[in-house]
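Issue 218. Parser rejects a valid record. Input:
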Amino acid sequence: MPAIEMNELIQNGLNRAVELMALAAYNSFRFGKRNTIKMVSLSIDDLKEIAEFCYSLGDMSPLAARDGRFLMELVKEPCAVLLIGDKRKSDFNYNCGACGYRTCAELNKAEEVEALTARGPSCQFKNLNINIAAGAAASMAWRLGLHCRVFSTIAFAAFALNKLEGIDIASSVAVSAAKVDPFFDRHQYWTKEHWDEIFAKEFPTFTRGFIGAIEE
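Output the parser choked on:
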């Protein structure tokens, strides 16, 4: 049996890790015993396209532009992204009212609103399921010794570019086998002055303007 070089070992291990992350996400707890999430592993070409898309949103979404620059650097070393999504409508019939409607039937009949980050209104338990799945995938990545982070920006860019069909809401888990943890400080892509300016402007209002989900 010929020796397998280190680079091939790393890439093969990364591919296998994403499969195990998907398995952990698939097997995570589901409300109502329903497993309706969809998943796909994004290719490097997908990530480059997503990075360019995020960066193009600079005027609308400073956060997306920053993460676009970050993603352009992330793909230079072994990395992968697991995209997780689901439909927005409820099939639980809990009638809990958390979505803003009295019943699931009212939510499902409501007019669909499309924003940059998702299509809504959406069932809160669908959102919780996605985040439980993302957490399970991230936990698996951590156990496997990978650098890891859950991203909303990569997810909504992948959603906007239709990288996973048949979904309305999405989350993503990025992993890396880089020499240094690339997720430790992404603020290197902003000066401190720019970061302070954006933070002071957007976060105290608790609006979605920082993400750029809804235009003013």
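Fixed in the parser; the record now loads. The mean pLDDT is 89.
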